[in-house]
Write a structure and sequence with these properties.
Oligomer: single chain
Largest sheet: none
Distance between the termini: 67 Å
Helix content: 55-70%
Structural class: mainly alpha
Amino acid sequence: MQNISQSDILNLPMELPTVEAQRLALAGIRDQTGSIDDLIEESRALVTLLKERRSALITTAVTGHNRCAALRLTAPG
């Protein structure tokens, strides 16, 4: 059985993307990252809103007030 040495691997021809292709890929990744960051921010805002609504609903249930109609869930923005 024949072994492959590290120098054999280092000497293999390898095609790399052009600098322009790398820049385009990076721009696409940054764009997607921005979209993901926006979704994370929106999700955090919704979690905060849901916690507030949950607290209000519990308060309403405990105090016996019937304010459930005022607790409709609406997304911020």
